[in-house]
User: Fold this.
Amino acid sequence: MGSFSKELRATLLISLLVGSVAGCSKHVDDATIAQDVQSKLAADPTTSDAAVSVSAKDGKVTLRGTVKDKATQQRMEQIARQEPGAAAVEDQTAVVAAGGPVAQADNMSAAAPPPASAPAEAPPPAAAPAPVEAPKPEPIVVPAGTDLTVVIDTALSSKSSQSGQTFLATVAQPVTVNGTTAIPKGSSVTGTVLTAKAKGKIKGEGELSITLKNITVRGHNYPLQTANLDSTVKGKGKRTAATTGGGAAAGALIGGIAGGGKGAGIGAAVGAVGGLIGGAATGNKQIEIPAETPLTFTLSHPLTLPPRAE
Assistant:
């Protein structure tokens, strides 16, 4: 009888331990949640063309980027909420309106012939002067040549990136015009990979060229035109760097590539930010820009924003 009781207690203890381990194994880490949601968004026909990045922290899923309509935005939220392990969803995406300005009618009704002149009458008393309206606030214009420092959300590479690929970034430093904050820190930015060419092991140049296309400021999306950031790796370790489209060449382009680190070429504008692409060389001398790297672009055309509401 005593031996049976000992065996029963041992069996119950083992069952409790197995249940505890199984319960722990069901916990899904944040990286897995973010990766699964990103994959499901790319596979879903409604959300596959949305330029959105996914992150997760303590089970809270955050969506950032731009979408074409409200339906796409709602579908992304639904996918994120259905993800196992997701405790909450924060949607920071902005809807980019499609289509051009509304056309106005050109046809006007023909004017009716004036009536026959009536006998002259005494002129009416002069009308009181109209009240003077207060001047309307002027739009905010961020001039060409302004530096815009961003932190990219995902890694870019001359080997793995593709021409035409969209990437997301976040404004690292606010931009002010005449003492007014025109572009707040944390604004979302969308960029495009113009050229991505892997360097051969023996010969051939490695090339990477990127630019910014859109920016979301206070929930509204605006087109953006900046100088391109270009980098070329050729020969045995020889590298060149350039900025095109009229941007200022302040700071070295690939300081990190030449020195094997992430920050050597990023220094003038905001402490760790210089002006162009910063990256690190792999063993095959490819151009690599890690995620969270700060980059400084220069506006090639002015950016006009509506006046701030008082």
